[in-house]
Specification:
single chain, 7 strands, 20% strand, alpha/beta, two-stranded antiparallel sheet, 6 helices, globular, 137 residues, five-stranded mixed beta sheet
């Protein structure tokens, strides 16, 4: 499991036509999620996040883990993830934290703990991980 420290700093700036622009929380999530074969957005101390991370480690996957409570702009990214997971236009702070973990495989949103466990039980998780290049066996 790879804990990522680099995103804790200020949101990276992009220079376009002489103007410095900051990435939106959505753009940050998209860039972070596509960075590795398996990415888990988590919160320290969340038991369901721990379950998903342990499952992936047990399968032999070393996911990149972003602990959003330790990231600058983490609350905004949690709201983006809650929106992506729920499909609803508005989310409260409590529903944002309840939506974690959020798991991306091959840059695509797989889902939260229920979706990951359901894929594991029905046997579709390992093929997805292999297709993304997270497993070789």
């Amino acid at each position: 499991m790879r804990m990522v420290e680099s995103e804790k700093e200020e949101a990276p700036a992009v220079e376009a036509e002489g103007k410095v622009m900051r990435w939106s929380p959505y753009e940050r999530v998209a860039r972070m999620a596509s960075g590795n074969a398996v990415v888990v957005f988590s919160v320290s101390g969340c038991c369901m996040c721990h379950v998903v991370k342990r499952l992936l480690l047990g399968l032999g996957v070393g996911p990149t883990v972003y602990e959003l409570d330790q990231e600058k702009g983490g609350r905004e990214m949690q709201a983006v993830l809650a929106h992506l997971l729920s499909g609803s236009p508005s989310t409260s702070a409590s529903s944002a934290s309840a939506s974690l973990p959020a798991v991306f495989v091959g840059g695509n949103l797989l889902g939260g703990v229920e979706k990951v466990m359901s894929c594991h039980i029905n046997g579709s998780l390992v093929p997805l991980l292999k297709q993304a290049g997270a497993l070789w066996l």
